[in-house]
Amino acid sequence: MNNVIKRPRRLRDHENLRALVQETRVSTADLIQPLFAVHGQDIKREIPGMPGQYHFSVDRIGAEAKELEALGIKAVLLFGLPEIKDAAASQAFAEEGIVQQAVRAIRKEAPHMLVMTDVCLCQYTDHGHCGMVEEGRILNDVSLSVLAKTALSHARAGAHVVAPSDMMDGRVAAIRETLDAHDFQHVSIMSYSVKYASAFYNPFRNAVASAPQFGDRKTYQMDPANRQEALRESALDIEEGADILMVKPALSYLDIIRDVKNHFSMPLGAYHVSGEYAMVKAAVAAGLLDNDKVMVEILTSIKRAGADLILTYFAREMAQYLKRE
Ligand code: PBG
């Protein structure tokens, strides 16, 4: 009997042995904290449904980045809430736009922080779509020049990495070409290559008032049922010049993260999105889940699936947790 039973439990017997054979470990250096910039002064306002996440005015966002830097976080991903939305998305590429101002503030006050910016139009258009609209259609090629202009203005403000999240065809190439033509060859593109038309974005859309005013995003974001399409989208972005790929959301798409990682030797990000974060926080508030244990399990599973970088609203909390451990 004794020599037929195989005993995998042996490796679990001692805590230190478990640590030695642990295959995946999340570190602070894997994490990217999203930040939201707003106009106004002296604002740090909690975002409804996303406890621990805030709107920061430009005069306070640098201090936040500095604190994250002190915790060991390497990068932030910036979003902005403009004061004016219009059909042309004019505040997306304005020199004094909210993201442009916030980039400059962070670069100044947290000089070691890597600054990434989300490049999209939905926060800046009055209809809330990620591209230009004509007669109810989201126009692809017309949107490309606006997206490229937006990315260029972020680079001019000091962004190190631009992250297009609009899902227009050809946007990575358009952005790369424009950046290169203006001597920003050193600015990287982290493409939201595999972005699904997900129901998990609602808390974010409320936070930045970017819900589409008509229709939905299904003509540009991907169908959650599709797996092979994720590989086609990734291949196109690599061809167009993306430096980092991304899958979004994360938890319902761990299989996609693994597929993309297996197929392409590219750095891969995964975005653990607002709804995924809000679900945990709501369950924790209801006394149903242990915040730290669930946080660690989720982030570990995203990394185990194949993500090299994790964009998550838990970044700050996880960094604090890792510091305590
Ligand atoms: C903009 C954008 C969205 C998110 C990141 N960039 C929303 C959307 O596509 O509707 C979602 C982020 C989150 O839910 O945390 N296009």
Provide a descriptive summary of the structure in words:
With 325 residues, the chain is of the alpha/beta class. The chain has one domain: TIM Barrel, CATH 3.20.20.70. Helices cover 39% and strands 17% of the residues. It has 11 helices and 13 strands. The protein is globular. The N and C termini lie far apart (41 Å). The protein binds ligand PBG. The site of ligand PBG has 11 residues, from α6.
Task: Give the SSE map.
Elements: H1 15-21, E1 31-38, E2 44-46, E3 54-57, H2 58-70, E4 75-81, H3 98-109, E5 114-119, E6 132-134, E7 137-139, H4 141-157, E8 161-164, H5 171-181, E9 188-189, E10 194-195, H6 202-208, H7 228-240, E11 245-248, H8 254-263, E12 268-272, H9 274-285, H10 291-305, E13 309-312, H11 315-324
Parallel strand pairs: 1-3, 1-4, 1-13, 4-5, 5-8, 8-9, 10-11, 11-12, 12-13
Antiparallel strand pairs: 2-3, 6-7
Helix pairs in contact: 2-3, 3-4, 4-5
This protein binds ligand PBG.
The site of ligand PBG has 11 residues, from α6.
